[in-house]
Amino acid sequence: MGRAFVYVILGGGVSAGYAALEFARRGGYSRGELCIISEEAVAPYERPALSKGYLLPEGAARLPGFHTCVGANDELLTPKWYKEQGIELILGTKIISADVRRKALVTAVGETISYKTLIIATGARALKLEEFGIQGSDAENICYLRNIHDADKLVNAMKSCSGGNAVVIGGGYIGMECAAALVTNKIRVTMVFPEKHCMARLFTPRIAEYYENYYTLKGVTFVKGTVLTSFEKDATGKVTAVILKDGKRLRADMVVVGIGIRANTSLFEGQLVVSMVNDGIKVNGQMQTSESSVYAVGDVAAFPIKLFDGDVRRLEHVDSARRTARHAVSAILEPAKTRDINYLPFFYSRVFTLSWQFYGDNVGEVVHFGEFTNSSPRFGAYWVNKGRITGAFLEGGSREEYEAISVAVGRKAKVTDMAELGKQGLAFAIQESQKQMSETGLAIGEKPTYVWHATAAVVAAVSIAAVGYWYGRKRRRW
Ligand SMILES: Cc1cc2nc3c(=O)[nH]c(=O)nc-3n(C[C@H](O)[C@H](O)[C@H](O)COP(=O)(O)OP(=O)(O)OC[C@H]3O[C@@H](n4cnc5c(N)ncnc54)[C@H](O)[C@@H]3O)c2cc1C
């Protein structure tokens, strides 16, 4: 039993949706030659909505409203769209083995699906507490958040514990965004994480202090520098408390766990070269793996970043998933015309009424700038390495300001005086952006291709507002 396609996209998440749109735009296939295989039961959707609009108590985001590619202000790809485009959606189907030499995939029910060209878009999975030696995370009131199934479980748990207590394990963006959603659902939140401050992989202590103070004003309690060791459960198996390593016992009507992710590479272990540094499937600037008929995109791919002198990175960000997916399709259909990807890493988040963006790499010395105030916050930081800007963070910026910091990072702007950079703050980035405009001869308002990422960032931020416009509505109402 089997089926054969010319192009198979394995995985049905963000990058699968953007790859499908790119195939359709370029018209590089005939009806029935392209398929998406996904373990999920629904067509590709904008995953970031799950921790934002999806969790709102009223007017929450629901499918089909946030299928890809609305997150980039592009077409809404419903199942009908795929049908019209002649792209087969093979949903609710898990691939359990892959043979890249034979160019064949085997599904959980034993069907063989063969391809000429494969795009691996299997993303990542949430790390489970069991992987850290803690048992019992299958209880009905312990939630993870990676897919729509998890999000439904979380929504149900929140509904049954309004006015109660939640413990959030993990201080990364999933923990931070879920904590904000829980508060919005009138649930008291305690966040527990081992680091000294939240978002430890990105935030500086000063930036983290701002968000932690903001959350504290919203009623969130932080327990830092310790980890969960076990759960207390009632006779029905529901968690009633979490026990921490430092001996503390926290009452819990529900628990949300956001302790990181692992790339879904296992199907290809021993067959494709994996990046040793960050456990992704290693690809070149065309998103092509060590096997020429196989490409990898999104969270699962480790690709060279020109801006970081070709350093190979695996990113876990939606913009990277969208861009790498489109790039792979371009490389597959028009290899001679497709240059190596030139990507400026970009990540954003929205919590409560706050919204930030980050570009580049957070290495080097840090200089903060701006107003760290509760009313109209507008602050940020530059990272400077060897006299050049390597990364920039901004909370509360305007479209032009986000564009400006992205330009400063993309140009690796030269810094001669750190104190002066701190004084200038955003003005420094705006000057860089003006220099860029005069060098490229573009008038204000026109975009050099160079600032594409910034534009995408703004579009993404706007579209998160659109995808998760529910937040906006909520903000205006409350
Ligand atoms: C709740 C949440 C909020 C987020 N918010 C933000 C944000 O604010 N900003 C940001 O930049 N990024 C955010 N992200 C990250 C962003 O969503 C990811 O970077 C993006 O989804 C990666 O896309 P992908 O296609 O690589 O993987 P995914 O979107 O995870 O898709 C992978 C797909 O592969 C399928 N799959 C895996 N293995 C198999 C198999 N063996 N057989 C069949 N199918 C398989 C999965 O079921 C899934 O459909 C968020 C992520 C989550 C989970």
TrEMBL record:
It holds the Pfam family MDHAR3-like_C. It comes from Eleusine coracana (Indian finger millet). It catalyses: 2 monodehydro-L-ascorbate radical + NADH + H(+) = 2 L-ascorbate + NAD(+). Belongs to the FAD-dependent oxidoreductase family. Its EC number is 1.6.5.4. This is monodehydroascorbate reductase (NADH). Its cofactor is FAD. GO terms for cellular component: cytoplasm.
